[in-house]
Amino acid sequence: MKSIFRVLFFTLFTTVCLSSCMKKLNRQQIGEHLKTAMDQFLNHPPGVDSPQVHFQVLDVDFYEEKKYYVCEFNVHMNQKTPDKIIDTTGKMTATISLDFQKVHRRF
Fold first, then answer.
1. Where are the domains of the chain?
2. Distance of CA 73 to CAs 15, 34, 36, 39, Å?
C-alpha cells in the first residue's frame, strides 16, 4: 500500500515540477509562431500541390482570447499565370489555436 502512494506521489510531484518549468513565450516569439502557422496554412494546404501561387507572411497584429489568437496578417501573394505574373499585398484575418496547430481563416 505504501509503494502505491509513493509511486502516485512521485508521479504527481514530477508532473508538477515539469509543468512549472515550461517557458512562457514572449510577444515576439508568439508573433513568429503565428506567422509560421499561417505560412504553413497558406502554402501547404492538404491535398493541393500548386506551384502557381506563393504567399509570404510579412507581419502580424494579434491579441489573445481564451482559446485562440485573433490575428490580422499582411500577406504578399505572387501568382504565376501563363501570360503574366500577379504580384500583390493584402490583409488576411484568422484565428489560430493557442497551440498554433489549428488555423481558421476568416477573410
1. 26-105
2. 37, 9, 11, 10
